[in-house]
Design goal:
It contains 2 helices and 2 strands. By secondary structure, it is of the alpha+beta class. The model has no long low-confidence stretch (mean pLDDT 96).
Length: 44
């Protein structure tokens, strides 16, 4: 299976933490960065 690198973007930190915890259960997903909004995501 293809390895997917993920940039999580959500303005609620608790949502980002929950999604990151959920995705960490799957070895083919890798959260490589997080951002609170689109502007922050694009600057990464």
């Amino acid at each position: 299976m293809k390895h997917l690198r993920i940039l999580l973007v959500d303005d609620h930190e608790v949502v980002r933490l929950g999604l990151k915890a959920l995705l960490s259960r799957y070895p083919h997903f890798e959260v490589v960065a997080e951002a609170a909004n689109a502007e922050e995501a694009v600057s990464r």
